[in-house]
């Protein structure tokens, strides 16, 4: 029996070998062979993938060619790039010779490069095709309607070609056998009825339409035909801005639903429970509101649930989530969820990834989360969770790789000799109380890539084991603790190292050439800067970010800067450095940000700095630099910040500075600059526009470090100390939104150019302590975003423009010590300022000054107008009197008849007045005597009554 079985096996193996031999020895159809060779002629094959395609061999043995075992006809071409955008890309265009492959069913040309050429329409004539894959093959133009003729097609993959577009989608409905469709990254927005056409594909099982610029998924019919066939619906990164349509929740066979990165609104409907077969649900990055529906807990096959970056509120559903026993991935971060983390999450034994960070959760961390033995990532940071975390919270987390607990109100209370069950790769602890001792359990972690212990209350000296242990950690952030220790003999090998704001002392450490970011600002490091810059490196340094600011470093920079040619950000501010800025600075060709503020540098700005063509920020403030501001500075068109205040620069402000269209901060205060303010400042377009977080020109100065896990970044950001509203402030996060011009404390003369009024986005303008003359520009009220305006200590005259009352954001104003006159314009805002902001202007009156304005003290322009009107009134009255008097008198003198008539008229009037007056006087006298007699009688009667009353009283 055993022998018989072995013989049977041998026969089967022999037949299989013979079958393979027969396949390789199949006679190739000569016509198809020549067609394939012509097809090859249209292509460039840099890696010789098609080297086997030759006349000497049969085409059935060629690479990527499959032939039918019986007929020998070519029925499959597997020519997709096997390296996913690698070097094995075929380049060229498609040959119509493919039409001669009449039996071809399978055509895969994905991930090649057809140089933006259109998909040839002749593909629509290859009626035998059941599989067509042109994904990511760099086609462009209109998708040919002729593809609708491929009635046998079951799988169509045209996605990954962002140069393609569809004008009319009706042809897709003709592919009645289609089961899988991928048109990702193709522009489909031109046909608003796309869903109606796709829904006619009753056999469709998988639909992938990401990044297609679709604007709606509303069916005009109210239903779709693939209700029972569709298993995958992937529509992420489109432009849907409506509620989720009802037809979605009738797709009872759906396994995958991805609607992420749209603008969906409204609540998650409770009818989502109808999708009872669902195992993948992604609604992240939308605008969904309301609570997570309880019915979500009925999706018992769900394995992946992602709803991050929405506006969901209320508590996390407790026991309902505990029903999802297959759930391995739960991402609810960046919402507005509140309340405690439900303990029922500890029942999800399959859970591997739990992301709850950046919400409004409170309470304590449930201890039973420590029982999730499959948990790989736990992120609860940026919430209001409080309480104590101990070993119990990590009891069975042996698979944990990523721990994020940026929780300011949480205290770690683990024993000094605790040995964690996990081996972490990324630790993000920020704000929580981990100290005061350096956590000894860290040295048990052998595979760490990221260590962030930012502001965790560590106090004391770095333990001896730390530097050797940390040498293989890629990113280390230890900032804002009270860590002490001497770094003179330390070698930093981490790619990114940040220990800002601690108590580290000694000389600067040695750096490995592998270090990319080294920031150790706000410590107490000392020694010569040249010792650090001139240290011996075995290979070229990769250092891009070097921040040594706010230490006690001394000496001159020297010429060793040329060893650090990868530098993009260099901050040496607030030290004790001196000497001239060396010419070697010009060798830092990639430099973007350069800080030397608050040192004792002397000399001028070196010409070689002009070689730094990417320079976006220069901060040389508070030094002893002298000379003229170089005119070539206008050639550095990337400059956004020029801060040269508190030096000894002299001469004119160069006109070339107006070429810096991206400039947002110009601070030249406290120098010896003279001449007039350039009239061309209106060419600085960045200051003439409203600041916007979207249009962030400062993004070119950002430096982000990708942690290699879940899209997390740590970054280095620029900050500046600016004098705004009369006080020094440090700007960092909002620095890209700041717009400032400060030319104060110089010897500038002339007037305030009206062109400066075009800088509508300006927030702070300081021209104080100069020798400016003339009037304040009348239309200064057009600078509506001004928050601070200082024109004090100049020789400005005239009145304060009425338009200044339009500056509704103005919170700081100083016009003191000028020659301003007239009434201070009336507005609630202006009168709220202190009188000190207006003193030193003797002719100025009105609130908030105590000097009241008299009738003669008003706006000077109005006085001129009123004086002019008064003069003309008197002149007119005099002329009228003369004309009227001599007009009547002259006529009476020249005409006797008129004169007699006039005097006769006067006599008649006189007689009439006399008679009327005599009659009236007689009437008055009569009534007066009568009234007098009545009054005497009344008086006598009152006296008699008084005597009678007194008599009665005495008796």
Q: Gap between N and C termini, in Å?
A: 167 Å
Beta strands, count: 61
Main beta sheet strand tally, sense and closure: 30 strands, mixed
Poorly predicted regions are 1-5, 11-24, 858-870, 930-955
Number of helices: 8
Shape: globular
Protein structure class: alpha/beta
Mean pLDDT: 87
Helix content estimate? 10-25%
Rg is 45 Å
Strand content: 15-25%
Please provide a written account of the structure.
The chain contains eight helices and 61 strands. By secondary structure, it is α/β, with parallel strands linked by helices. It has a 30-stranded mixed β-sheet, with no helix packed on it. A twelve-stranded parallel β-sheet has the order 36-38-40-42-44-46-48-54-56-58-60-61. Strands 15-17-19-21 form a four-stranded parallel β-sheet, with no helix packed on it. Helix 6 (828-831) links the parallel strand 60 (819-823) and strand 61 (843-845). Helix 7 packs across helix 8 (896-954). The chain is globular, with a radius of gyration of 45 Å. 37% of the residues are buried. Residues 1-5, 11-24, 858-870 and 930-955 have low confidence and may be disordered.
Keywords:
955 residues; 16% helix; disordered N terminus; 12-stranded parallel sheet; 8 helices; alpha/beta
């Amino acid at each position: 029996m055993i022998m018989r079985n072995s013989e049977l096996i041998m026969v089967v193996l022999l037949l299989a070998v013979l079958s393979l031999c027969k396949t390789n020895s199949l006679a190739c159809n000569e016509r198809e062979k020549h067609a394939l060779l012509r097809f090859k002629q249209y292509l460039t094959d840099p890696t010789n993938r098609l080297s086997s395609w030759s006349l000497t061999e049969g085409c059935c043995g060629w690479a990527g060619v499959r032939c039918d075992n019986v007929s020998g006809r070519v029925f499959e071409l597997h020519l997709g790039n096997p390296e996913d955008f690698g070097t094995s890309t075929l380049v060229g265009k498609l040959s119509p010779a493919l039409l001669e492959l009449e039996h071809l069913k399978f055509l895969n040309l994905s991930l090649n490069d057809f140089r933006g050429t259109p998909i040839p329409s002749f593909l629509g004539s290859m009626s035998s095709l059941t599989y067509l894959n042109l994904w990511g093959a760099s086609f462009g133009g209109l998708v040919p309607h002729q593809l609708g003729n491929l009635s046998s097609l079951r799988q169509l993959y045209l996605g990954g070609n962002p140069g393609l577009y569809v004008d009319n989608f009706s042809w897709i409905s003709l592919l009645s056998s289609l089961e899988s469709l991928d048109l990702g990254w193709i522009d489909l927005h031109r046909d608003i009825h796309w869903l109606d056409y796709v829904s006619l594909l009753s056999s469709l099982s998988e639909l992938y339409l990401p990044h297609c610029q679709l604007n709606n998924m509303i069916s005009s019919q109210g239903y779709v035909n693939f209700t029972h066939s569709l298993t995958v619906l992937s529509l992420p990164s489109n432009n849907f801005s409506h509620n989720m349509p009802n037809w979605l929740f009738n797709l009872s066979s759906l396994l995958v639903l991805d609607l992420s990165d749209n603008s969906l609104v409204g609540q998650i409907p409770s009818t989502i429970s109808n999708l009872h077969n669902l195992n993948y649900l992604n609604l992240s990055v939308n605008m969904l509101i309301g609570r997570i529906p309880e019915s979500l807990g009925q999706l018992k096959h769900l394995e992946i649930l992602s709803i991050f970056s929405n506006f969901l509120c209320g508590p996390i559903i407790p026991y309902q989530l505990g029903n999802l026993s297959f759930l391995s991935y739960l991402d609810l971060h960046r919402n507005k969820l509140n309340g405690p983390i439900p303990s029922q999450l500890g029942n999800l034994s399959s859970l591997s990834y739990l992301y709850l960070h950046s919400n409004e959760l409170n309470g304590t961390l449930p201890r039973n989360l420590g029982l999730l033995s499959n948990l790989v990532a736990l992120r609860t940071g940026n919430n209001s969770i409080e309480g104590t975390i101990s070993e119990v919270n990590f009891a069975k987390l042996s698979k944990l790789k990523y721990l994020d607990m940026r929780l300011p109100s949480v205290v770690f209370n683990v024993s000094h000799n605790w040995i964690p069950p996990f081996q972490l790769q990324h630790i993000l602890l920020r704000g929580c109380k981990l100290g005061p001792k350096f956590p000894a359990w860290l040295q048990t972690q052998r595979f760490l890539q990221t260590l962030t212990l930012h502001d965790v209350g560590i106090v004391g000296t770095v333990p001896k084991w730390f530097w050797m242990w940390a040498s293989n950690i890629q990113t280390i952030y230890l900032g804002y603790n009270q860590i002490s220790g001497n770094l003179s003999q330390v070698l930093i090998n981490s790619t990114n190292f940040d220990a800002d704001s601690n108590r580290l002392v000694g000389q600067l450490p040695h750096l490995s050439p592998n270090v990319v970011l080294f920031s150790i600002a706000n410590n107490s490091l000392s020694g010569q800067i040249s010792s650090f810059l001139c240290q011996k490196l075995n290979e070229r340094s990769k250092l891009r970010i070097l921040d040594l600011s706010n230490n006690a470093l001394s000496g001159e920079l020297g010429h060793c800067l040329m060893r650090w040619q990868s530098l993009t950000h260099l901050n040496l501010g607030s030290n004790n450095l001196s000497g001239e800025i060396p010419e070697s600075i010009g060798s830092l060709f990639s430099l973007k940000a350069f800080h030397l503020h608050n040192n004792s540098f002397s000399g001028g700005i070196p010409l070689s700095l002009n070689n730094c063509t990417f320079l976006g920020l220069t901060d040389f403030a508070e030094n002893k630099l002298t000379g003229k501001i170089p005119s070539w500075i206008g050639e550095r068109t990337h400059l956004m910040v020029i801060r040269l205040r508190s030096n000894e620069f002299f001469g004119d402000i160069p006109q070339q500075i107006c070429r810096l269209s991206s400039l947002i901060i110009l601070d030249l205060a406290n120098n010896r600059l003279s001449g007039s303010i350039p009239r061309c400042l209106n060419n600085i377009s960045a200051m003439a526009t409203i600041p916007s977080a979207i249009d962030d020109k400062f993004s070119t100065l950002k430096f982000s470090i990708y942690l290699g896990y879940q899209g997390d970044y740590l970054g280095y950001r620029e900050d500046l100390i600016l004098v705004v509203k009369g006080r020094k402030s440090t700007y960092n996060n909002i620095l890209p939104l700041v717009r400032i011009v400060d030319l104060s404390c110089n010897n500038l003369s002339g007037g305030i150019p009206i062109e400066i009024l075009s800088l509508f986005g300006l927030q702070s303008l300081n021209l104080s302590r100069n020798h400016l003359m003339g009037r304040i520009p009348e239309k200064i009220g057009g600078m509506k975003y001004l928050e601070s305006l200082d024109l004090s200590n100049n020789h400005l005259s005239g009145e304060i423009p009425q338009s200044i009352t339009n500056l509704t954001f103005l919170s700081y104003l100083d016009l003191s010590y000028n020659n301003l006159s007239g009434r201070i314009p009336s507005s609630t805002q202006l009168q709220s300022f202190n009188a000190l902001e207006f003193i030193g202007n003797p002719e100025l009156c009105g609130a908030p000054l105590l000097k009241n304005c008299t009738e003669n003290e008003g706006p000077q322009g109005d006085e001129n107008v009123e004086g002019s009107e008064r003069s003309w009134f008197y002149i007119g009255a005099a002329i009228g009197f003369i004309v009227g008097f001599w007009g009547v008198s002259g006529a009476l003198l020249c005409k006797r008849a008129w004169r007699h008539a006039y005097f006769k008229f006067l006599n008649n009037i006189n007689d009439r007045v006399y008679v009327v007056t005599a009659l009236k006087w007689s009437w008055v006298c009569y009534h007066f005597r009568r009234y007098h007699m009545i009054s005497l009688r009344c008086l006598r009667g009152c006296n008699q009554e008084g005597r009678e009353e007194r008599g009665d009283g005495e008796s």
